[in-house]
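Record 1 of the preview.
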Amino acid sequence: MSLFDDYAEYESTLQQQQQQRGSSSVSPPTTNGNLDRPQDGLALNINGLAADGYVATTLEAEDAPIFSLDTVQFQVPNQIISLAVSNDVLVLVIEGARILRIKLQEAHSIIEASVPVNPTSLRACNAFLDPTGRHLLLSTPQGESFYFYEGWEQAKPLSKFKNMEITAVAWNGMAWSTATSSTRTILLGTHDGKVYETELRPGNDAKAKRSDIPVKCIAELPVRERVTGIAMEAFPARRKQHLVLIATGTRMYQVIGAADLELQSGDKSAA
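->
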């Protein structure tokens, strides 16, 4: 029996119980399907179910909160524009076109870097930090993008990302547990409903002023609207078969296809 059938059966039972309560002050117990008897040691209590079929849950006094807010002894030198956290690394983009990179386990050590723009022009940006906390991608509403890698003194403009506001990033899980400095193939969603493929890698020259990382448009959504989220996952039994989910303000898209995301830098990925 499917989940939908289970729910439909429950709805029918609930309606019968409500009708019986309306006709008599004492409602006889009803039996219908598998709702009123335990299965595999699991006892189902329908008394706590609301009329719409959902369970009303509350946070018990003894339950620990999911998270808590605490003050820290750190004075941000300027107004925060954007921030990102990953792998115990906090990155703050602040006014004045500055980047503060803080390892939360070593909070006393703060690495400061710059963004190569007019300090007064950087008022807003999207910040994307990869799961390893090493790769930072910045994108402004004006269509300027910058790449920052741990240890650099300055972020680098991405010349081939011109006029593209990045609004979502799907990181590649293949790069999380490897020693490579590359992100491998990742997907970028943009403000105008396009999906791009690229690979962030620091290169050999950390002092180079620009980064010529290639980028390729691989899809355009039928409805041209802002991509608010994008994710990709490989099927466990078929590592080259991937599921890509793309979300916008009004729609969600699903794409399944073959892609070799394990290729090294310089190789072309199969779409």
